[in-house]
Structures are given as C-alpha cells and as structure tokens.
Task: inverse folding
C-alpha cells in the first residue's frame, strides 16, 4: 500500500497564535503568516537547540526539507521584527505527534497521532499503547529560558 504524502510532525502547538508590536493599532499593521510547521522548526532548532539532523528526524522530514522550512521561518520572523509587522501563526502542512509505548519492550517514541497502528521501532511488535499527546505537564512554572538578571 503506498504511503500518503508525509506531513510534517509537530509535537507542540503554539500557546499564542498572534504577536503584534505594542502600541500600534491593528489596522495600521501588516502581518506575516508563520505556519505551524515553520514555528515547530524554530522551536526544535532555536529553542530546544537541536541540530538540523535531530530536528529533521523529529519532524519526520529530510534535512534539506527541514533547512528549507527553518529558513522560511527565520525570514518571516526577521521581516516582522525589522519591519514592525505582526506575526500570525496559522496553517501549514503538519500532523500532531502522539506518544506510543511498546507493551513488549517498553520503548516509548513519538509519531503521528492519526497514523495506522504503528509497530515498535525497537522490537517490531504491534502490541502498542497510545501514550497520548506529548505534554510537559502543566505550564505553570517553566515557560521558557529564564530571564537573565
Ligand atoms: Zn518494542
């Protein structure tokens, strides 16, 4: 059976989907649209600090594809920051990641939530538990890098 075209895997959806410069009325603002998968590339590479290879693996795309996504994302963020534009985070070609756990060997991994029944990448069994979407628990405390000073 041919596999459907691969969508980019996204582990975390943004907590905010709109950013705007302070003090400027919306009607005077231009905006750039950053897709969900473009934001994910920034999150993996720039926020989590992964290299291109690991980031590409996490999104289940090739390295050149990841590089292309990240470059587009950087350009949009740069355009917004330097030109005083708002950023809307919206759309894109992606699937939400879910966690799976193997009942045989206990291996835990992340894959698309909506895929066919996966098999364990470690031992190959299909005796798999859905471990639910990847969550970091409640977002009370740690919301990002600590501010310096
Ligand atoms: Zn296994």
Result:
């Amino acid at each position: 059976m041919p596999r459907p075209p691969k969508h980019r895997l996204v582990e975390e959806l943004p907590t905010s989907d709109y950013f705007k410069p302070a003090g400027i009325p919306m009607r005077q603002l231009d905006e750039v649209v950053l897709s969900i998968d473009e934001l994910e590339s920034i999150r993996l590479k720039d926020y989590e600090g992964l290299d291109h290879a690991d980031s590409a693996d996490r999104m289940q795309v090739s390295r050149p594809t990841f590089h292309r996504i990240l470059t587009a994302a950087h350009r949009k963020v740069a355009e917004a920051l330097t030109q005083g534009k708002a950023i809307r985070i919206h759309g894109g070609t992606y699937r939400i990641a879910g966690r799976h756990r193997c009942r045989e060997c206990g291996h835990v991994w992340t894959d698309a939530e909506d895929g066919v029944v996966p098999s364990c990448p470690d031992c190959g069994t299909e005796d798999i538990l859905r471990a639910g979407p990847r969550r970091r628990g409640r977002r009370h405390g740690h919301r990002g890098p600590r501010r310096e000073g």
